[in-house]
Amino acid sequence: MDTHSIDDAASMLAPFPKRAPVLTAGVQLPAGVDFLRGDAEPMHVKASPNGIKGAYGILAGDPGRIAKIAALFDDPAEVATNRGFTVWRGQLDGVNVFAAAHGIGSASAAIVFEELALLGCHTLIRVGTCGSLQAGMRVGDVVVSTGCIRDDGTTRAYLPAEFPAVASHELVTALRLATMGAEGDRPPWVGVTHCKGSFYSEVPGYVPDAAAADARWAAWVGGGAVATEMEGAALFAIGGARNVRTGMVLAVLGVTKKGPGAADESTAEAVASILTDSEEAAAGKTRAIRAAVDALRIVIRHDVTAATAGAAKRVEDRVPAAVPLAAPRAVKASTTRHCPHHGHCHAPAIGLIAVGAAAFGALAALAATAALRRAD
Known about the structure:
Blueprint: H1 3-11, H2 49-52, E1 56-60, H3 63-70, E2 74-82, E3 85-92, E4 95-101, H4 106-118, E5 123-132, E6 142-151, E7 165-166, H5 169-178, E8 189-196, H6 210-222, E9 227-229, H7 232-242, E10 245-255, H8 267-275, H9 279-318, E11 337-339, E12 343-345, H10 349-375
Parallel strand pairs: 1-4, 1-5, 5-10, 6-8, 8-9
Antiparallel strand pairs: 2-3, 3-4, 5-9, 6-7, 6-10, 11-12
């Protein structure tokens, strides 16, 4: 997306309310507990706040995908690799960002999500792959998840089964806008996704309790779930608990199910479509990565704009009413002087007020942007 498209998309996020505190990861630890062990470096993600530098991140399960994501950053650099948890950093539009691998499955991913929250990260977008669950879906299509069916197991350690795992509305909107794509691209699928705890359990008849498993799959499909993957529930559940904004965009890797009313492929064909890395699948992965990066740019632009407006409002609130910033009051004739170029000018009164207003606005913008970058 070009700069104008990013600006337009960012303006569409403005009506959404934010949780308080804004842009603050809310991890509350019991007294005396220090998961960072005093050195600001978690046990598994071997990166400190000074290492990753940014609070905005893009996540993927595959460590090999992190360098591809970081290639779209400005000044990318590898920060750390430990137990497959690779981390790169860079910048987008002058703001520090990072990309990190979380491994396969909610149990592995939850460790990374928790440790990134401990490091102060406040905005996380996962980019991954999925199997389709509805008629009309194709390999290479892109899915934006609005929430997850918590069929993973890990999130039950956090929340009762009735509690939903939902994405942040700002990131859903940003991803929806970012996945509009170029002319000719198929529109994204937007909806609830299924998060499972076992990759192979979706193969019909493959698990011991096949009848029960197949009935559950029929329920997910019949209820309208659009895709199935393995980490989204942990991302959304932990994001909600830690006050971290979360979103997820997926590329369809294989046609798992075709949905109600459609003839399912044979089991062999379905498995083959998942295991074959076709050109369509590769194109879908690339599109999903670009969408995640563009969505992060949209959110960053929105945050910078909101922070600038907030700082300007705080400055205006502190300025005496006699010196308004927006519209200078009428100045008496006695304050005018003759200008050799323009006749009578309201100077120095109006000139000082105008310069002061501009200076306050500029300082507010600089202060807000600097504060946002320091927070990163």
